[in-house]
Amino acid sequence: MLWLRRRYLVVTVDGESMTPTYQPGERVLVQRAAPGSLLAGQVVVLSRRPDSATGVGARWIIKRVVALPGDAIPRDTVPALRTAPGTRVPAGHLVVLGDNPDRSHDSRHTGYLTTDRLRGVVLGKIG
């Protein structure tokens, strides 16, 4: 059981930022992952704050990865990064977006999120 808890999380979707892919109240299975294992297009779970590493009482953010460290900065689709220095996403940073732009607070508003907030990759819905 301890092995499973170290490897997987079950997260309940809260909010409409990922509709139509995930609906509020749906539960998803999340496999813990390291930043270096991510691929653009994957849906990830991040902690709301960088210091909530334990996950106890944590609130999560569910978003889709659109750019990884070393990828070109997606200036056209992410207004908060239009004036970011350089041409590539810096090491230790991600660009993430919700599937429902009208209901998502994401990199379009905040710019980069740091990889230390990554908790895992969504494998799919439960139930």
From TrEMBL:
Domain Peptidase S26, residue spans: 11-74, 86-122
Family designation: Belongs to the peptidase S26 family.
Pfam families in UniProt: Peptidase_S26 (PF10502)
PANTHER family: CHLOROPLAST PROCESSING PEPTIDASE, SIGNAL PEPTIDASE I
Membrane topology: Single-pass type II membrane protein
Protein name: S26 family signal peptidase
Native source species: Microtetraspora malaysiensis
InterPro entries: LexA/Signal_pep-like_sf, Pept_S26A_signal_pept_1, Peptidase_S26
Location within or outside the cell: Cell membrane
UniProt main location, coarse: membrane
SUPFAM superfamilies according to UniProt: LexA/Signal peptidase
